[in-house]
Write a structure and sequence with these properties.
heterodimer; A: mainly alpha; Cytochrome C Oxidase, Chain A; 2 domains; 16 helices; B: mainly alpha; Cytochrome Bc1 Complex, Chain D, domain 2; 3 domains; two-stranded antiparallel sheet; 11 helices; 4 strands; binds protoporphyrin IX containing FE; binds fe (ii) ion
Chain lengths: 462, 246
């Protein structure tokens, strides 16, 4: 840690992990309901559990991105954060909005639009909150001593994510237009501007962990986010096949979304190539695991599994089935959860001055959670394909088909338990690090930066 | 090899260019949607129905236009599949309609509100969805769990309307789950030939209280009055004789 104000990141990361646990609880509630154990139905009906599960996911990821930004922006801009106090106020208001939203879901206060269930009045609070955040980091970056590409791409991602939240706040009487603009938030977030955030966090971590020359890393960052938008903007069309929008979207969406995996393939190659080139010089091996794991798993979950059902010929049958849930889990985990975990794994020793990154616990946390998530994805894949076959192709009654795939949810719950063990280990390791201390500022600037690669001239030419 | 500033130019040009194309397509789509979705027929009733749909977050369990939760049936074509009368009855007490199954929330909608919801679902059923949901392409049927169904009835005979003189109750409610002469739902077994399997008394008892006859059955108790039951039994029996005499 270079600047004392970077410490605010800690409370965001701690919140992140807490919210993830809550999310997992609601995941189990739904998993059991799918297995036929819906004892909680009268207290927490499925739609309340679902809204809570997915909104907590989005909130904890955003909390993680904010924590990461509070850490990265001062470091990249070479100055203290504009206002630490404002950051804490922003954190508190974020938590407040989150608590009210989740409580509201249990009382039926919501909007009934998938992923955007937060009711309108709270939306305005979210906007105020995000403005506070953007102002704080934006001002810091503007007044900084340097303006790096990594910082720029991160800020661009944060600002456009905030702007794209707005189309989701318009009310339409027509379900078709409602859905059309809902995707401006959901799709253009995860397959657009969030990739800017992910890419910049990835390059920050790669610069720190591999010691490869910044120029090289940042050049490829531009190329990757370029491919993201080249494919991802018109790729929105893969949600416009069947909702009452014109037929040309079948073509536009099909072609461009089929290119989207290239951006994730780029992220994977990027991470692996930089790791190879720089070698594993930094002692924080587990942070590098998460970083490279993010590159690879984002390609598997978002790129490969997204591609599997993105062509209209396939999507006609898989649309709105458990196949989508399968892809949703590994994509969110692989691309966004792992990058937040990578940031936590890297920054925590820097913030607290305790280098607890070696030993079995952090590494087991990495492997069990990832293997668990792959298992969950596999179980959902089998359930999804069976559902498509029985219900969509053979014409079996919905409930009958669900009965037939019930057993796979048992598999999913087993894998989810393994996943949860990994998260518990991660949390224990987090707690063991203790609180951030100002002394860490000094100690880490003294820490030797990883050596630059032995052949910088060659590195520059690639 | 590519320099950093070239990479940046690539990023800016493609992002800007494709954003503009996307905005253009959006303008065209917003213009085309009213016709494709018959927006003129989006009555006030249907608009109120959408509010109810939103306020109760039905999408948290169901998909509509293929979007939503994966816990409950896709509803885009539900009016076509089940009929308005059945839905009206179902919404009054979902758990009674599907005894022992996955649960839906029992909303205490007024009769007006139920009509609003049905108007909304009717409207959505007529939106041009480019062919979603696709009709099943393998002719094999499946019935609700725990039933002896599975065999779909013979394909409908051209010209003949198997429901021609059916009692209203059958035509509006029973047919949502049962097929006769190839017409109707597949939640329950086809009722062709049911007269051969049951006597009039047995049918009457079954309709009066299915659980008493077969505990745990998925056939709902529809609280039918004596008159309605009489009509149904007579019609089912009469169909049976027609069928065998043919
Ligand atoms: C660990 C235990 C977990 C369990 C048992 C679980 C289970 C479930 C279930 C049953 C659904 C509902 C599907 C439906 O509508 O029927 C769901 C939705 C979802 N979950 Fe999880 N989940 C877990 C963790 C996670 C994690 C860690 C993530 C993110 C990284 C995640 C992301 C999602 C997403 C994005 C959806 C919405 C999917 C869609 O609508 O297509 N879940 N989850
Ligand atoms: C990190 C990036 C990604 C994330 C987090 C993600 C997540 C999700 C989620 C949560 C859904 C369900 C949305 C809903 O029904 O409301 C979804 C749907 C979908 N995703 Fe992704 N996705 C990502 C990338 C991709 C990519 C790169 C592709 C294509 C190559 C893709 C193809 C699709 C398709 C076709 C659907 C629609 C499924 C349906 O028709 O039900 N996704 N995605
Ligand atoms: Fe998408």
């Amino acid at each position: 840690m270079k600047y004392n104000s970077q410490k605010v990141a800690y409370i965001f990361f701690a919140t992140c992990i807490g919210l993830l646990f809550l999310q997992i609880i609601y995941g189990f509630i739904m998993g059991f309901a799918h297995m036929g154990f819906d004892g909680l139905h009268d207290v927490i009906p499925f739609n309340a559990a679902r809204a809570t599960h997915t909104n907590l996911l989005v909130v904890w990821l955003l909390t993680g991105f904010m924590g990461a930004s509070y850490y990265i922006i001062p470091e990249e801009a070479d100055r203290e954060l504009f206002s630490v106090k404002l950051a804490y106020v922003q954190w508190a208001s974020l938590v407040l909005v989150g608590v009210v939203a989740v409580a509201g879901f249990h009382l039926g206060w919501w909007e009934g639009r998938k992923f955007l269930e937060i009711p309108r009045p709270l939306d305005y609070l979210v906007v105020v909150n995000v403005l506070m955040f953007i102002f704080n980091v934006g001002y810091t970056a503007l007044k900084g001593r340097r303006f790096t590409t990594t910082g720029l791409v991160l800020l661009a991602g944060l600002v456009s994510a905030a702007l794209l939240y707005l189309p989701g706040m318009i009310y339409f009487d027509s379900q078709v237009l409602d859905s059309y603009f809902r995707w401006w938030v959901v799709h253009l977030w995860v397959e657009g501007v969030w990739e800017l955030i992910m890419g910049s966090l990835l390059s920050f971590l790669l610069i720190k962990l591999t010691g490869v020359d910044r120029e090289v890393i940042e050049k490829w960052l531009y190329v990757i986010v370029g491919i993201t938008f080249l494919s991802g903007i018109l790729g929105t069309g893969h949600h416009y096949y069947w909702i009452g929008t014109p037929k040309y979207w079948l073509m536009v969406g099909g072609v461009f979304s089929a290119l989207e995996p290239l951006a994730f393939l780029g992220m994977a190659i990027y991470a692996v190539a930089m790791m190879r080139r720089g070698g594993r010089r930094h002692p924080n091996r587990v942070a590098l695991f998460w970083t490279v794991g993010c590159g690879i798993l984002s390609f598997v979950g978002a790129g490969f599994l997204g591609f599997a059902h993105t062509l209209p010929q396939v999507n006609l049958y898989t649309h709105g089935t458990l196949v989508t849930a399968m892809h949703g889990h590994l994509a969110f985990w692989g691309a966004y959860a792992t990058i937040v975990f990578g940031m936590i794994a890297y920054t925590l020793p820097e913030l607290t001055g305790r280098k607890l990154y070696s030993g079995w616990m952090p590494e087991w946390a990495f492997w069990t959670s990832n293997i668990g998530m792959l298992g969950m994805t596999g179980a959902l894949a089998v359930a999804g394909v069976a559902q498509v076959y029985l219900e969509r192709r053979m014409g079996m009654d919905f409930l009958a088909a669900q009965k037939a795939v019930e057993v796979h949810f048992f598999g999913m719950i087993l894998a989810a338990s393994l996943f949860t063990v990994g998260i518990v280990l991660f949390a224990i390791n987090f707690i063991q690090h203790g609180l951030p201390v100002s002394e860490a500022t000094v100690s880490s600037t003294r820490e030797p930066e990883p050596e630059p690669p032995s052949t910088p001239a060659m590195a520059r030419s690639v | 090899m590519l320099s950093k500033s070239q990479a940046r130019t690539f990023f800016i040009v493609f992002t800007g260019g494709f954003s503009l194309v996307f905005l253009g397509l959006t303008v065209d789509t917003v213009r085309a949607v009213p016709e494709r979705s018959h927006e003129a027929e989006l009555s006030d009733r249907a608009k109120r129905g959408k509010r109810l749909w939103d306020e109760n977050n039905c999408m948290g369990c169901h998909t509509l236009l293929g979007e939503g939760g994966y816990y409950a049936p896709e509803l885009t074509k539900v009016v076509e599949r089940r009929g308005a009368a059945w839905i009206d009855l179902f919404l009054q007490d979902p758990q009674q309609m599907f005894p022992g199954q996955r649960k839906m929330v029992k909303y205490d909608f007024t009769a007006e509100e139920r009509r609003d919801v049905i108007a909304f679902l009717t409207w959505i059923g007529e939106v041009d969805t480019n062919g979603f949901p696709a009709p099943p392409d393998m002719t094999l049927s499946g019935a609700a769990p725990g039933t002896n169904a599975g065999q779909i009835a013979a394909a409908p005979k051209p010209g003949a309307d198997p429901l021609a003189n059916a009692p209203t109750m059958f035509r509006t409610v029973c047919v949502a789950c049962h097929a006769v002469g190839g017409v109707g739902g597949n939640t329950g077994p086809s009722l062709d030939g049911v007269a051969d399997r049951y006597t009039a008394e047995a049918l009457d008892q079954w309709l009066a209280d299915p659980q008493a006859v077969k505990p745990g059955t998925a056939m709902p108790n529809l609280n039918l009055s004596d008159d309605v039951r009489g009509e149904l039994v007579a019609w089912l029996r009469a169909r049976g004789t027609q069928e065998t005499s043919r």
